Amino acid sequence: MLILAFSDVHSPKYLRFLRADGKYDVVLMAGDLVEKSRVENLRPVVEFAKLRGKRLVAVFGNEEYREREKEFVNAYPEIKWLSDEYVVLDGERGCLAVVGSRGSLLKPTSWQRSNIPNIEAEYARKPEVIRQLIREAKRECPTVVYLSHYAPTWRTLTGESRKIWPYLGDPRMERVLVEEGVRLAVHGHAHHGRVAFAHLGKLTFYNVALPARGGPTRIRLGAQRKLI
Predict the structure, then answer these.
(1) Tell me: the pLDDT tens digits for 193-207?
(2) Angstrom distance (rounded) from CA 186 to CA 8
(3) Rounded distance between C-alpha atoms, residue 142 and residue 70, angstroms
(4) Strand order in the sheet with 79-82
């Protein structure tokens, strides 16, 4: 199964990086697709994704504000938006279950603590929320991809200042993904991450942030250790 993945377009800021050839079974978008939750600025991103992919799946980032999520869902029904949910995609090459979430941080930012009620508790329980979603998804399809905005590992954060890693992702998620047999995890948020992909046993993590990669990431599922 061929996957095209990207995040952190911050449209229109990094639209110039949206370049790719070919057709893909699914396009995965890992959040921060627009800047400051401007719903209308997602249109050119969606048009690019529709040109390249048969199915479009996305999660919200910190730039898609929580109070405006429904506006994104209503404005772009061609996208399957996932917020601690999963979807099973069927195609000629078999099925694919995508478990999608903003993800969690090891430490909430000061803004989050001030503006999002109970954010510490939300992040504390998030790994187990994702574990249960993976188990539910696997009952319908054995092949599961985890899609999040925040990094589920620190292995792809090299290049970012070490002191901000706890505010970029949550390494507690690694254990969940490994124990539940997930083979592929796709995330964004790390604009300066120099590591495109990293391995943990049979699990491969990809940082698909456009500012870091300079373009969308192409993945052939079943051969996650190679970019195509």
Answers:
(1) 999 999 999 999 999
(2) 13
(3) 30
(4) 79-82, 53-59, 24-29, 2-6, 217-220
Three-state secondary structure readout of 124-165: HHHHHHHHHHHHHHHCCCCCEEEEECCECCCCCCECECHHHH
Q: What is the pTM of this model?
A: 0.96
Q: Could you write out the three-class secondary structure of 17-72?
A: HCCCCCCEEEEEECCCCECCCCHHHHHHHHHHHHHHEEEEEEECCCCCCHHHHHHH
Q: What's the whole-number mean pLDDT along residues 93-109?
A: 95
List C-alpha distances in Å: 14 to 68, 184, 191: 22, 25, 11
For 105-117, the pLDDT digits (tens) are 999 999 999 999 9
Cβ(97)–Cβ(138) under 8 Å?
A: yes
Nearest to 227 by CA among 28, 52, 213: 213
Per CATH, which fold does 2-220 belong to? Purple Acid Phosphatase; chain A, domain 2 (3.60.21)
Going across the sheet that includes 197-200, the strands are 85-91, 94-101, 144-148, 184-187, 203-207, 197-200
Please determine, for residue 41, whether its predicted confidence score (pLDDT) is greater than 80: yes
Rounded to an integer, the average pLDDT of 131-151 is 97
